[in-house]
């Protein structure tokens, strides 16, 4: 059982805020990953011996500090949007604080507290409206040895290991009798993670040549009638440049990748937009994977779509984004909320989610059936959406994003980290394609091979290996989440029984 001295309220407040900020410092763009390990240890220590209400309250304060540091970039959509998201996401840390205050009464607390962290991360990625799993502890490991575990146990398992390193260090500080064992356990986590990075990747036998187009856009035109056209005009212009450069330098190109919202008007139904895409494909003489906004299946709806566009046959297979952003891409309880909150009119037409994995087949170069897995923007954060691509046979992954709204904030850097995480988990190259942010070529080790800068038009060329392996993380990680939930529930039940036994 863990104990700590009683602290005055001002010191407790300072420790809660410090714990939240330290945890957040490990997230991009700061990337100070040791701070996260120290911060979570401090968070767990603070919850020791607290009543449930106090654990909830101080946990909430730590969550406010963490989320204000890491996700307040959403306030570019409106000050109160940022306030509401930060306030809500901090509730999960309040719940975690409450749970940890109970679990630290058990002897196995160093191993149970990390399970509770994983269970809460799982909940935050599901509730409500699909959740928002954007600040998981595993995201702090992209540039440290623990990232070697990502291909084996996935984000879920690595979040557990980050928290375990924290609780083992806390155990070492508070229990001198086990100090050597606890420190050795922490070092073993890092050593094994580093060794796993030495496991060789499967040698691919084939590859595909891709030109990634970053069109850029005049941000001052956003909201005007010319904006939608200018985005696609810029994509055409950069495609012409990329094609000329490839031919001048003798570079082979099998297909061209455009980002999300490269066409802001349905390119299948709108004649002018269709003409721009067709001209682009005909000039390039290769298929283009187009990121588009398309009309939805019902009146006054839309979908965010990836479409194969062949220079001769036109539009082919398409994928519609599955994980939609509430109050950004659609309005939950629209009929009830819209009359009360007129500001929600800015959301525009409701988006309709797609179904099934985003694996698109096309005849590309020498490949009759190239299978490309597409993740669209915030879908990166949802484990199962990424894993479904591998189960469906994706040979490489493209990540198409419109980050114009969040340019020059923390968000593009955090999204780049998520792309790197998915590359390591799935064992696939990831081509991160953005409208005017950080586009990048990422290898299966999570290394950024090449990248662009924000607010610039650019082209990246990549020779991308085609891979067919299914990493253990893709199969195991979803089960680890449920195991953590079950473990936490059982452990909480044990604390209730123990309290009743002590009362008797």
From TrEMBL:
Transmembrane segments: 7-25, 31-48, 55-73, 79-99, 111-129, 149-171, 183-202, 479-497
Annotated InterPro entries: Apolipo_AcylTrfase, C-N_Hydrolase, C-N_Hydrolase_sf, LNT_N
Keyword Transmembrane helix: yes
Membrane topology (UniProt): Multi-pass membrane protein
One cellular component (GO) term of this entry: plasma membrane
Occurrences of domain CN hydrolase (ranges): 208-466
Top-level lineage group: Bacteria
UniProt keywords, alphabetically: Acyltransferase, Cell membrane, Lipoprotein, Membrane, Transferase, Transmembrane, Transmembrane helix
Compartments it resides in: Cell membrane
Top enzyme category: transferase
A GO molecular function held by the record: N-acyltransferase activity
SUPFAM superfamilies hit by this protein: Carbon-nitrogen hydrolase (SSF56317)
EC id: 2.3.1.269
One GO biological process term: lipoprotein biosynthetic process
CDD domains attached to this UniProt entry: ALP_N-acyl_transferase
NCBIfam families: lnt
Family: Belongs to the CN hydrolase family. Apolipoprotein N-acyltransferase subfamily.
PANTHER family according to UniProt: APOLIPOPROTEIN N-ACYLTRANSFERASE
Function field: Catalyzes the phospholipid dependent N-acylation of the N-terminal cysteine of apolipoprotein, the last step in lipoprotein maturation.
Protein name: Apolipoprotein N-acyltransferase
Name of the gene this protein is made from: lnt
């Amino acid at each position: 059982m863990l104990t700590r001295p009683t602290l005055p309220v001002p010191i407790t407040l300072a420790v809660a805020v410090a714990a939240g900020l330290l945890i957040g410092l490990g997230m991009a763009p700061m990337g100070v990953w040791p701070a996260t390990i120290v911060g979570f240890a401090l968070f767990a220590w603070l919850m020791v011996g607290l009543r449930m209400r106090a654990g909830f309250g101080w946990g909430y304060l730590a969550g406010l500090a963490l989320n204000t540091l890491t996700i307040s970039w959403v306030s570019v959509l409106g000050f109160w949007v940022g306030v509401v998201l930060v306030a809500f996401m901090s509730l999960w840390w309040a719940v975690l604080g409450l749970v940890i205050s109970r679990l630290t009464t058990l002897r196995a607390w160093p191993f149970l507290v990390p399970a509770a962290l994983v269970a809460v991360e799982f909940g935050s990625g599901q509730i409500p409206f699909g959740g928002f799993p954007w600040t998981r502890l595993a995201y702090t490991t992209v540039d440290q040895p623990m990232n070697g575990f990502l291909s084996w146990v996935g984000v879920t398992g690595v979040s557990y290991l980050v928290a375990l390193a924290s609780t083992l260090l806390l155990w070492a500080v508070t229990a001198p009798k086990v100090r050597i064992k606890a420190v050795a356990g922490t070092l073993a986590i890092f050593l094994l993670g580093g060794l796993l990075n030495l496991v060789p990747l499967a040698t691919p036998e084939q590859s595909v040549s891709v030109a990634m187009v970053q069109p850029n856009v005049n941000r001052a035109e956003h909201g005007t009638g010319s904006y939608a056209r200018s985005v696609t005009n810029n994509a055409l212009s950069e495609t012409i440049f990329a094609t000329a450069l490839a031919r001048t330098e003798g570079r082979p190109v099998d297909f061209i990748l455009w980002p999300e919202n490269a066409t802001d008007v349905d390119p299948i139904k709108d004649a002018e937009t269709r003409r721009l895409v067709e001209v682009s494909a005909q000039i390039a003489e290769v298929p283009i994977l187009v990121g588009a906004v398309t009309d939805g299946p019902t009146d006054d709806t839309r979908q965010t779509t990836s479409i194969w566009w062949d220079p001769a046959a036109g539009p082919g297979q398409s994928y519609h984004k599955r994980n939609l952003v509430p109050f950004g891409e659609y309005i939950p309880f629209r009929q009830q909320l819209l009359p009360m909150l007129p500001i929600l009119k800015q959301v525009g037409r409701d988006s309709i989610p797609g179904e099934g994995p985003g694996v698109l087949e096309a005849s590309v170069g020498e490949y009759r059936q190239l299978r490309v897995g597409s993740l669209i923007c915030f879908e990166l954060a949802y484990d199962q959406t990424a894993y479904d691509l591998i189960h469906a046979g994706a040979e490489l992954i493209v990540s198409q994003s419109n980050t114009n709204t969040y340019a020059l904030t923390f968000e593009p850097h955090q999204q780049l980290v998520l792309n790197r995480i998915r590359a390591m988990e799935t064992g696939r190259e990831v081509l991160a394609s953005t409208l005017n942010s950080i586009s990048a070529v990422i290898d299966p080790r999570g290394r950024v091979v090449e990248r662009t800068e924000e607010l610039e038009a650019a082209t990246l060329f990549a020779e991308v290996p085609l891979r067919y392996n299914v990493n253990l993380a893709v199969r195991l990680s979803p089960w680890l989440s449920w195991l953590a939930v079950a473990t936490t529930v059982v452990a909480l039940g044990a604390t209730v029984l123990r309290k009743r036994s002590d009362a008797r």
